[in-house]
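Side project, low priority. Logging it here so it doesn't get lost.
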Amino acid sequence: MKTRYLLFCFALIAVACAATAYFWPQLPGSVPTHWNIHGAVDGHGTRAALWLLGPGLMALIALTGVLLPAISPRSFDMSGFESTYYYLFGVIVSMLAYVYALVLAATLHGGVPMEHAVPAGVFVLLILIGNPMGKVRRNFFMGIRTPWTLASERVWYATHRLAARLMVASGVLGLFALWLSAPTWALLALMLAWAPLAVVYSLLLYKRLPHQIGE
């Protein structure tokens, strides 16, 4: 799985590099690098910054995905869910590639509705990440890592099963809200609300099962 993950990431990074090189002569000296929540540009940089924002950031995250299992404590290794682990990192690198494609398109042609395109990507990301979240085993780098999930295997498992449902539901509802042109605050709420719910659930479950500590 690790080899397939690396090949997949390498292909995405190679495409990003090729696109940057191909469109380089058409890029202005100053390019947009940040948009606010309303889709208006509020940050610029030199066109050389695109190499870091696109291929550079994708490569950094891809390499991080390889590094973390190597430094994980033995009692919290990732061998039990290796395929899920690399799948999730692959999805994150894919999201970075998607955002970089939007940045290139906006730089070259303008008119990209970032206020809709980026949230759409985030909601799809929630669906893709949430779907296998229940397969993530206890570790120090990925998942809902609260004091209570790390203290109990049972709490970790139950919390991640709930988080999986909440993330997928948030993603689906978020896409529907985008289609209905919901206000920005509603989109942000759908993106983030699942996290505190999962954290509170892990605490409540831990308190109900004090005899499970250390499982």
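Brief comment: The two ends are 29 Å apart (CA to CA).
Revisit when time allows.
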